Amino acid sequence: MQVDPNSHQSSEQTTQANSEIDKLKQPRVASKRFFGSHASRRSFLGRAGLFSAASVVAGVLGSPFSSKNGGNVGDVVQAQAINRRYNNRPFDYSRFVNKAYRVRLEAATLERNIPIPPHPTNGDEERYPNKIGSDSRGLPHNQLGEVKLEAYDSLTKALTTQNPNDYENIILGGARKLVNPQGPLAISLEGINAAQIAVPPPPALASAERAAEAVELYWQALLRDVPFSKFQNNTDNPKVLAAVEDLNRLSAFRGPKQNGRVTPQTLFRGSVNYVGSGSSTRYVTPPGVLDGPYISQFLLQIIPWGTQSVSPLIRTALPGNDFLLNFQEWLAVQNGGSSGKSIKYDPKNRYIVTVRDLGEYAHIGGPTYLGASLILNSNGTPLNSGNPYVNSKTQIGSNATFALGHFQALLNLGSSRVIRASYWQKYYVHRILRPEAYGGLVYNNIVNKTQYPINSEVFNSQALAQTFSTFGTYLLPQAYPEASPTHSSYTGGAAATAGVNVTLLKAFFDENYVIPNPVVPDPNDPTKVIAYSGPPLTVGGELNKLATNYAIGRGHGGIHWRSDGSAGLALGEEVAISLLRDERLGYNEIFNGFTFTKFDGTRVTV
Description:
Radius of gyration: 28 Å
Number of helices: 21
Low-confidence stretches: 1-71
Largest sheet: 2 strands, antiparallel
Structural class: mainly alpha
Mean pLDDT: 89
Distance between the termini: 39 Å
Order of helices and strands: HHHHHHHHHHHEEEEHHHHHHHHEEHHEE
């Protein structure tokens, strides 16, 4: 029988559901000897559904009654009878199924009771009738690159009605299709709903903060072939020093700083954006992100995978692979067409050494977070002290609960669920233009004398001047021939995936453990590594660095703003916490929660 999900429950169904919820609220008394003094209502609920009173008595009271302990014969006989009843009693399937039902009810109730926060936008879609502040790539555009409003309206109609047929009527400009606009509407059976996650509004098109992010992206393009070993405070690299000087002149640059200033050590390092008071943004640099080498140890270590291993050497692009430098090529891609070009790869694999290398890794990806879990599992990293099997005398975990296979299953689940949440922000809230589209506005203001509202700090920057002298264009050079994926910029999906995975890994493992035998790429040979010498690097710090490496790496390719990644990381963290919160409701183990450090440095227990 099919049931309309929008219809109301019958009174019988409602009464039954309320009855089950009421059962959860009924007080229960448990022996401390059986459950421990810390037993919670949730942990007792799990046991009460599986054990009869007789089995509890047998387990708690049966063992002391023996002749050796002074018990009388009647007590012994009674205890033996109870034990026979317990040992011969079949597993109560109905109670087990009913427990699953009650746990799912409780999870749904807890998630439903999370308040829905406000979802302020930057106002650009309403502010500009020609939609120059909104993402429109893949739709048809005029010769300046402004979207044809009939096509944009066909997109927003589908997003408003959410009728599957309307999505099939979106007017496209070329062969590229939009990426999964209906995906965010799928209802997840675990974790928080996308509408319950707050992210700060992105910078507005005309703002100084958006201009600062654009200047940083132009510098990332200019420095694509500079090794990260030059990103140190004692560097003499002229491009690095020029970038630092230029960013320090900006009035609203929100990237990491030391003593209030951008330095070579902080250049292009990652950050995380949370909702502040009101609709403001709270900017943080996660612990460990500024420590040691730019690249996380989890991108430099061999990944042990059972009887095999995965090399950290990557296939990367050769210098000079820069795209969308010509306006007609740029326009073709905005219309959903092809640039007609492809990446020329270095025939020799190597470690991630340059800005271009990290951009290419973030372009294609690898076993990033699965790999990190395998490295942690093999290098001696202890499990999180909250794991109930850490101090067990008789048991260990397995793929079912509290061991690597269980953790890896949650990593995969989190990667799917967080994309639903991130894409919901992309399609149904913000619809922010991509950096490549902003570059088109900059180009048109200079070349075609348009008057788009671009902050003057972009035009006064050394980044833009050097881009023209290096590439012969005012467009933002892209590292990928297809440029950005065909969905909007905010929040960053790859960053959200990084956020959910790294948060789960910090919950599973001891984040304070010092990574043994850290390395850095050999500055004289990118196919080799040498020992790192410097302050200790912790698991938590290097996981935070891994997340920000991946998020900012998308910017190295030219396809994401800093704020896309920074907000995406915080969103991913929130999804991970919600998954952990729901998951723990179903455990039978005595479990007090995982304690770990969030990106903003606060400690939480889930």
